[in-house]
Amino acid sequence: MLEDNLSSSSSTSTHSDSSNNLPSINEFPKKDSSSFYSIIGIGDPIVDILSEISLNEINKYQLKLGDSIFASEDYNERNVEMFKILESMSLVSYTPGGSVQNTIRVISWCLNNNSQGRKNYKISMLGSVGDDLYKNKIMLSLEDIGVNPILEILKGDKTSRCGVGIYKKEKLFVTQLRASKRLSEKFIEENLDKILDHQAFLIEGYLLNNKFNIVKKLCDLFYEKKKMIIFTLSAEFIVKMHYEKIIELGNKSNIIDGSLGEARALARIENDNYEDIFRSIFKKLKPNNERLLLITDGPNGAYCAKYNYENDDFEFIIRSYAKKIKEEEIKDFNGAGDAFLGGFLSEYMKGSSIIQSCKNGINAASVILKNVGCTFPRNTTLGKN
C-alpha cells in the first residue's frame, strides 16, 4: 500500500511491459544536475480581464454568477459589452488564461523555483494570437516565467479574451475566442521540427471544437516517436460533444487529466463511486499498463490511478488530500485544476515518484487558490506552502 500522507487503494500486481508501444511512465530522465526535460502545450492563449462588478451590471446584461458563456465575435452582441465595463474599472487586472497556458506557466514556475535553473528544461506554448496589445501581455508573461512562445501572430486579428466579473468572491465568465481558433496548418508545418523537439506534448480538449485535425496530426507524430502525450479533458460538455475523438486521442495518451465530473462523463457512469468511474474509463480505452488517470475533485483532493490490464484490476489508486485553507484566504477557485496538473507534471517529468508529484500538484493548486486568476507570487516556494 502507498501512504506518505496519501491513501491508496491497491491490488498488488507485478508490473509488466505495456501491450503497445507507448513510452514508459518512467521514460523521463531521473532527477540529477545534468537532466534535461522538455514539454510543449497546445491550447487557446487567452487574456483574462478581471475586475469586481456590481450586481446592477450583472442584472443589466442578464447574466448569472457562476455562468461561463462563450460570446461570438459580433461586436454588437450584448455580452461583448462586459469587456468594456471590466476594462473601464480602476482595479482591472490582466492575467494569462486558458487551460493549457495556465498549466504550462505553472510547470515553468515550479521548475523556476528549482536550483537546477532554466538551462535544464524547455517549456513551450503553441497556439495563435492576434496582433494587438493583448498579444503583448501574453508574450511578456510567458517569457517572464521562462516559457518559450511558439505563437502564430495573425495580422489584423484579435487575441482571444475572457472577461471575469467578480462579485463577493463569486464569478461569471464571458469568453470570446478569436485568433486562437485560427491556428493554421501552415504554421504547424513551418515549425514542426521545433514542435517535435520536446519530450512531451500537452493537449486540451477545448481544441477539439475547431482544431482536431491539427491536434490529431501532432498527437500521431508524438506517438510514433514514442514520446509522452498528456490529454486534459477541459469540460464536461467537451467530453459529451466530442466523445469519440476523446477516446481516439485517449488511446494514444500516457496521462489523461480531468475533474471528477469530466471523468464521470467519459466513463458514462452516473454514480459517484470513483473506483467504478476509473475502471470504466480504463476499460473504454485500448489496454496500456503504463497509462495514468489523473483526476481532481476540488476540496476533496485528487486521485492518480493506474490499471493492470493483464490482471484486470487496478495497480494502484492514490488519493492526495487537499490542503486545509482558511475560507478567508481563498481568493479564486479558477485555475486550481490546471495548477494541480502543472505541479504534478513539473515533478513527474523529472522522474520523481507519483506520490511526490501528487504532493507538488496539491501545493501548486493551494497557491493558486490564494490568488486571483491562475497567478502566483514569484518569490513563493511550493515546499513552504
Order of helices and strands: EEEHEHEHEHEEEHHEHEHHEHHEEEHH
User: What structural class do you assign from the helix and strand content?
Assistant: alpha/beta
What is the overall shape? globular
Helix content: 25-40%
Distance between the termini: 27 Å
The major beta sheet can be summarized as: 10 strands, mixed
Query: If you average the pLDDT, what whole number results?
Result: 83
Helical stretch tally: 13
Short description:
The chain has 13 helices and 15 strands. It is α/β, with parallel strands linked by helices.
Structure, explained:
With 385 residues, this protein is α/β, with parallel strands linked by helices. It has helices at residues 55-60, 81-88, 99-112, 133-145, 185-190, 192-196, 212-224, 236-241, 243-250, 260-267, 274-284, 336-348, 354-369; strands spanning 6-9, 37-42, 46-52, 68-70, 93-97, 121-130, 147-154, 160-167, 170-176, 200-204, 228-232, 255-259, 292-296, 302-308, 313-320. The strands form two sheets. The chain has a ten-stranded mixed sheet, with helices on both faces. A five-stranded mixed sheet has the order 4-9-8-3-5. Strand 8 and strand 9 form a beta hairpin. Helix 3 crosses helix 12, helix 10 packs across helix 11 and helix 12 (336-348) packs antiparallel against helix 13 (354-369). The chain is globular, with a radius of gyration of 20 Å. The model is unreliable at 1-34 and 381-385 (pLDDT under 50).
